[in-house]
Amino acid sequence: MPLNDMQIRRAKSEVKSYTIGDTLGLSLLIEPNGSKSWRFRYRFVELPLLKRTRLINS
């Protein structure tokens, strides 16, 4: 199920890092310090790769 804006804003930090799955390899990583990063898992010639983009809090 796709994440919506409210779910992303309400995601709070915990003692350990955790992810909330979106769709087709996209997930949101929430770190203990409160930072949030989008992660995208994909395969390139059968090698699993992970791209990560950090969100900038405003």
Structural description of this entry:
By secondary structure, the chain is mainly β. The protein has a single domain (5-51), classed as 2-Layer Sandwich (Double Stranded RNA Binding Domain), CATH 3.30.160. Helices cover 10% and strands 45% of the residues. The chain has 1 helix and 4 strands. Strands 1-2-3-4 form a 4-stranded antiparallel sheet, with no helix packed on it. β2 and β3 form a beta hairpin. It is globular and about 35 Å long. The termini are far apart. It holds the Pfam family Arm-DNA-bind_3. It comes from Pectobacterium odoriferum. Residues 3-49 form the Integrase DNA-binding domain. InterPro entries: Integrase_DNA-bd_sf, Integrase_DNA_bind_dom. This is Integrase DNA-binding domain-containing protein.
Jot down its keywords.
Double Stranded RNA Binding Domain; globular; four-stranded antiparallel sheet; 45% strand; 58 residues
Q: Which segments are poorly predicted (pLDDT under 50) over 5 or more consecutive residues?
A: none
Cα Rg: 12 Å
Query: SSE order, as H and E?
Result: HEEEE
Termini distance? 26 Å
Strand order of the largest sheet: 1-2-3-4
Q: What is the overall number of helices?
A: 1
Q: At the first level of CATH, what is the class?
A: Alpha Beta
CATH superfamily label: Integrase, DNA-binding domain
Number of strands: 4
Major beta sheet, specifics?
Answer: 4 strands, antiparallel
Which structural class best describes the helix and strand composition?
Answer: mainly beta
Q: Mind telling me which CATH architecture this is?
A: 2-Layer Sandwich
CATH topology: Double Stranded RNA Binding Domain
- Determine the fraction of residues in helical runs and give it as a percent range: 10-25%
What best-fitting shape do the alpha-carbon axes yield? Answer: globular
The averaged pLDDT comes out at 83
Number of domains: 1
β-strand amount: 35-45%
